[in-house]
Sequence to fold (501 residues):
Amino acid sequence: CWSSCCGGDAVEEPVVGVTAVACAGTRGPMLSGTSRGGLFVLMLDFAEEGKEGWITRIDAHKMKINDICVEGGTDTNGQGVLDDAPLCGRPWCFGVACEDGTVTLVKFVDDNFSMTQMKMPCGGSVLKVRFIADIGHERQPDWITWASCTAEAVYLWSGEGELKHTLKNLWTTRNANGELVVETPPESPFTMLAVGNNPNGSLMFAGNAGNPDKQAPSSVSVWSIEHGRVCDGYGRTDAKGFSPEVPLLTYKHCGDRLDLDRSGYSTDFAVDVRSDYQVAMWNLQGVPPHRLAISPRGPVNRLVCPRSGFDHIQLQLTHRSKVMHMCTAEDPDDAGGPCLIVGCEDGSAVAWDLEGVDQGEISAEMRSLHAHELMIPLALWLLTFFQVVSFAFGPSIKWRKEVQKPMHITQKLAFIEVDVVLTCPATLLFWAEIAGCVVSMSLYLLFTITPAQELVNWVARKLQSTNAFKVGKSGLHNPAVMITSAMSLVQRAIHFFLLFS
Fold:
């Protein structure tokens, strides 16, 4: 806290936190933005070429950094690249979206960088920034390269920072005669921006998550960008009646935090958040290309028509904690194709497989350990140490002769004027204690040597991937939910058993 010079009132200093992160290659550069507008650049050591790592701070903004996007993702042939070389055959370039209404392009050449700042014409906080690639073509300086999103409009920029188009939130539908009808939606600001880059063009999705208070539904509109220009479905910019400000089509069944297929050769699906705990994956592909006699000209020609019945939900992924952030990625090793990475409120990160026979299953999960999970290993180590020390270095015990004699334990019990004498041989209690110790030791060895806890966790995740758990009833009416809850109780019981053993 600090005291103001005027009144001397204590004002709590706001907490500074990381709000956006982007990484390029295995060595870097890596950019992180904070809630105070600070940008930190990190380069790792590169021993093969004798380059040392470094870190620096860029003071280009004074307000919160909302988003950071790195240029590229594929090389000139559309293949994914993840090494020290730049993508698309050009130096690294990052787009930084800030709450002060600006987008800063940070371009790296070797270990040096330069900056270009783009100011939004209408002001307002820049929510998202995305890179638009023309895979397979040599990009020209005046081609559309970046898209930025504010609540009022979506702005398209060239690589040199020149404003090309300003797009408003419009809806397009087809009437009974097949004519295009343009509508102005209710007051619904832009909240989502996503770009799918493909070899024959890019698709840009922009929309809003809806406003229930004003009865405004969620929607997302689509624009096609080819050779650095906004064009129609045939790649034309001079067609009769065509306007780059008017979207080609509009989907009205989406949620929030939209992201697209990032395979680099097609845009077959989209994912969005439908509730705090559920992510939906829906189809964007009208007809698979292998079923067509003539291959589609570009990615826009493969899109499914809205309300045609083919734009259906393929997966519903339920999480235990509130979904805070998500993004799609390509995972050729574990998922064998596209995957979804979700960050939750409880500090966990979950990777979902989105393709193949194991579609909709969790392929990886990372989370922060709970307090009892941090204390249990330490407590077990201390307990084991004291047990070994007490048995190995304890004094010798001199047994008396009376211990070896037969013995009975007698207890008199008086109840409602009835006297009962209970007699129990000491050997019976001895063998009961020995049996309890053997069982406890066996369970302890079983839980510590075998992956019993991971097996219980795997069963619970397997049940969560079933249709009965996703679409069935909740509570006691759904056996899958009951079994999942039981698995959670078993897992906690194992933790406490190991703690007190």
User: Anything to note?
Assistant: Helices lie at 371-393, 426-449, 452-464, 467-471, 479-500.
